[in-house]
Sequence to fold (460 residues):
Amino acid sequence: MPLNRKRAIIVGDGAAGTILANKLRFHSDPSEIEIVVFGKSENHYFKPDGVQIPFGFKDYRNSVKPTQSLFNYGIQFIKSGIKEFDLDNSTVKCEKDNTFRYDYLIIATGDRFSTEDLPGYEKAASHFYSLEASLDLKRKLSAFRGGKIVIGQASIPIQCPPAPYEFTFQLIQYLKLRGIRDKTEIHYVYPLNRVFTIPNVSDFVEKLMEEQGVIIHKMFNVDSLDPAGKKVNSLEGETLDYDLLILVPPHSGQKVITESGLADQSGYISVDRHHLNYKDYDNVFAIGDATDLPISKAGATAHFQSEYLANRIANEVNGNAFFDSYNGEVACTTITSGTQAITLFFSYDKPPRANFQSKSDYFLKWTSSDTYFSAMLRGIM
Amino acid sequence: MEEIKPTRVIDARGSFCPGPLMEMIKAYKQGKVGDVISIYSTDTGTKKDAPEWIKKSGNELIGVYDRKGYFEIVMRKTK
Ligand SMILES: Cc1cc2nc3c(=O)[nH]c(=O)nc-3n(C[C@H](O)[C@H](O)[C@H](O)COP(=O)(O)OP(=O)(O)OC[C@H]3O[C@@H](n4cnc5c(N)ncnc54)[C@H](O)[C@@H]3O)c2cc1C
Fold:
């Protein structure tokens, strides 16, 4: 091994950490750079299937793979969380109390559900943002015979901003299949003066929701919950009662990020928009949901960022010049009816356009877990 | 006219929709009745969204002002 062999430490074994590790391995020679990934998960769950699992439209067993099995040859995966970051000495400390030196540090710790920000959440609400929650919701939906369902999100930002509307369209399909759509009122609450962050996509989705008889409540910022009385109150003074409340939990960055002084109370790391490096450190980066970049928290974002960063690090290690940058690219296919979807492409400068929905886009979405596990995570696309 | 002194100023310049509005809502939640909250933003969507939210939530919109290269929205928390 050459004496100056570098070490890249990737903290986080989710979409961003895995894609980056695999791409970097493809682009670089193991004799030049060692890749070590720290993570806490036994299994890797494909979260987008959360908009189908609660309805039994997909078998959850196809949405999960052992984490360790997803790293390509030549990557060391250490199943332990990182509890301390010391950027001045270029080291991290893991939960087993060992300290590791790095030449490159990439933080890909994603975000967490900060339900402590909304008292009563656990009792009052269901959601589809984790596998456990999706399976629990599946049981609740099976027992549901009609009534009033309120769907929404507790706050902004959340992972995959389109997921609440995708879920709503799948719910409508499910209720129709069960013959209880006419016995069910669906209320959709959203914090802004529309149904989605981006105005033109919002107009498109709002029209489809109206056609499906969804009752929309705009500017509904969830303020408090009354689990016993089955009521949800908005900051704007509206109260809705419900039989079933499906509310995406509040999100924030990881506690360890705030505690290590890498971010403020929100826990999201500020990085350079085009180069993804943290402050003046040109060997410390953050990618995926862990950042505070003004773009969707999406696997697709992590994918584009990883492509940029893997190339950059590999070129640097090889002594090559590298002039590319990340420009906020995201592409995601989102469900817009029981059987149709639209694909949105965007970057920092170009908002997405919602042009048309199609069955082929729905098929793309339907098969995305296969593409994800076999190609995207593997770093070969 | 005497200038109203904000209790809290949020500089959200360079941040995109819905970031500035969410910052304003956060400050509103943390504040107390009577507080004057001012937000600086460069995002044109916020210029429309924030006053609409202030109205809908029953608070007082003090004004929307064009500044050099950004604008300022000022509200008073009334409830
Ligand atoms: C319902 C739903 C639908 C979605 N649909 C889509 C979609 O259609 N398209 C799309 O592109 N995206 C979608 N997403 C979003 C996508 O899943 C996330 O944006 C993506 O998982 C982010 O990847 P990440 O690696 O940044 O975070 P994560 O995948 O959350 O991974 C972070 C990892 O870091 C680990 N970690 C945390 N702290 C530490 C620590 N201290 N030390 C070591 N490891 C740590 C965690 O255990 C976790 O495994 C969806 C999400 C949901 C919930």
Notes: Chain A has a mean pLDDT of 96.
